[in-house]
Amino acid sequence: SYYILAKQGEIVFPTSSLSYPSQQTCQWVIEGSIGSRIQIQIIHFSTEHDVDFLEIWGGGRTVTSSVRMLRLSGTLDEALSSSSVLLTPNNLALLRFFSDTTTASSGFRLYFQSGFACDLARVPNR
């Protein structure tokens, strides 16, 4: 698990190889300033379709205190029908990644920034 307290940043997984390891469960909590929202833009996404997943939750530091906003699997084109930008309801985002025991792929890369609602572009969540 990783805890990120920052106004902006990048999450890349895996960080040091061409493909992510099998049997992984990873979690990142992103916390922005109180009163802000977090905008997440997915730049690259490639996992084993319908088997390895990235979940993006908003609203809390845990699954029980959050709402799942998106569950992604496959390629960016398969996983998202339109925009690759999400906006959380508050200053907290929880990301969880799961991989099974078989084929791995190149993983994902995303940027995040935290700002006040009027400072961020409003993009509908799915």
The number of helices is: 1
The helix/strand order is EEEEEEHEEE
CATH fourth-tier homologous superfamily: Spermadhesin, CUB domain
The biggest sheet, with number of strands, parallel, antiparallel or mixed sense and barrel status, is: 5 strands, mixed
* Radius of gyration of CA atoms, rounded to a whole number: 14 Å
Number of strands: 9
Approximate helicity band: under 10%
> The CATH topology, please?
Jelly Rolls
How much is the average pLDDT? 89
CATH architectural grouping: Sandwich
- Provide the CATH top-level class: Mainly Beta
Q: Quickly count the domains.
A: 1
Instruction: Give the strand order, joined by hyphens, for the main sheet.
Output: 1-3-8-5-6
Q: What is the terminal separation in angstroms?
A: 25 Å
Oligomeric state of this protein: single chain
**Which structural class is indicated by helix and strand composition?**
mainly beta
Strand content: over 45%
Q: How does the overall form come out from the CA principal axes?
A: globular
InterPro entries: CUB_dom (IPR000859), Sperma_CUB_dom_sf (IPR035914)
Protein name: CUB domain-containing protein
Keywords: Disulfide bond, Repeat
Question: How would you sum up this structure, described in words?
Answer:
The chain has one helix and nine strands; from the N terminus they run ββββββαβββ. The chain has 126 residues and is mainly beta. It has a single domain (2-116), classed as Spermadhesin, CUB domain (Jelly Rolls, Sandwich), CATH 2.60.120.290. Strands 1-3-8-5-6 form a five-stranded mixed β-sheet, with no helix packed on it. Strands 2-9-4-7 form a four-stranded antiparallel β-sheet, with no helix packed on it. Strand 5 (53-58) and strand 6 form a beta hairpin. The longest helix has 4 residues, at 76-79. The model has no long low-confidence stretch (mean pLDDT 89). Residues 1-115 form the CUB domain. This is CUB domain-containing protein.
